[in-house]
Automatic annotation (TrEMBL):
Residues 102-151 form the RNA polymerase sigma factor 70 region 4 type domain. This is RNA polymerase sigma-70 factor, sigma-E family. It comes from the Bacteria. One of its GO terms (molecular function) is DNA binding. Transmembrane segments: none annotated. GO terms for biological process: DNA-templated transcription initiation. CDD domains: Sigma70_r4 (cd06171).
Length: 162
């Protein structure tokens, strides 16, 4: 293998788990999240030579993940409704598993853009400006999507937990 292939293999190995976690929060379904990560990584691999000149390959990959997710939600043929499933892995001892289930169910009820904004802002820990650049939105639009999404999450999670 040459240096470029080594760099690509190292990048995929280092980012695959983090991409899967974000994809799972976006999709709410393990199989769909795996497909989303796979589609994203295929796009990254196909553009790897060009990406070596890009300043932030990680940001490009995250944006590709988000755009691929949003595009999949726009397809008219997509009529399948995913049902909530428990992940195969157990919940951590630190958190209440019921809260995690409630949050994932509430995330599934958000619009795709609201879900993407919340995942980028609060899971990926991006600033409002970084999120706006990733999604090609104005900062005020990001703030309003975040506020509306959080309001829905609060209401849904509180109703579920009481």
């Amino acid at each position: 293998m040459n240096d470029s292939q080594d760099a690509l293999a190292a990048f995929v190995s280092a980012r695959r788990t983090a991409l899967f976690r974000s994809a799972y929060l976006l999709c709410g379904n393990r199989e769909e999240a795996e497909d989303l990560v796979q589609s994203t990584l295929v796009k990254v691999v196909l553009n790897w030579r060009r990406l070596q000149r890009v300043d932030n390959v990680d940001a490009y990959t995250r944006k590709t993940l988000v755009n691929t997710f949003i595009a999949s939600r726009r397809r008219f043929w997509r009529r399948e409704q995913p049902y909530g499933e428990l992940p195969e892995e157990g919940a951590s001892a630190d958190g209440d598993p019921d809260v995690g289930i409630a949050v994932r169910a509430a995330l599934a009820r958000l619009t795709p853009v609201q879900r993407v904004v919340l995942v980028l802002r609060y899971w990926e820990d991006l600033s409002v400006g970084e999120t706006a650049r990733q999604l090609d939105l104005r900062e005020n639009t990001v703030k309003s999507h975040a506020a509306r999404g959080l309001a829905v999450l609060r209401t849904d999670v509180l109703e579920t937990m009481t």
